[in-house]
Amino acid sequence: MTRVIVNAGICGFCTTVEARRIAKHRVSVVLSSDCEMVESMNGELQDLGWLEALGPPMGSAVWECACEHLKHPCCPVPIGILKAIEVELELALPKDVVIHFDDPESR
Length: 107
Prior knowledge:
Elements: E1 2-7, E2 14-23, E3 26-33, H1 36-39, E4 48-49, H2 50-54, H3 61-69, H4 77-88
Antiparallel strand pairs: 1-2, 2-3, 3-4
């Protein structure tokens, strides 16, 4: 199982993504979140093929589910889900992703 923690930012919500391989190229995703919109995605990502999940964004089951349930277009949770799936299916190595706001005043 691959577990990813997403701290979404100013909303203050934290999400745990658990991706578990259920077959050679299939994965199941379970979300645990303080955010009701993210929680409502549970059940729709239970059995995904790798192409279904990681294909082009317009055809990705993860992005379609996110568009249906999430109201904030900049929510980082879908990326966390996709990264967890990649690692669980051994298509990528686990490496943290960071978005850092550069403060010109601190230079």
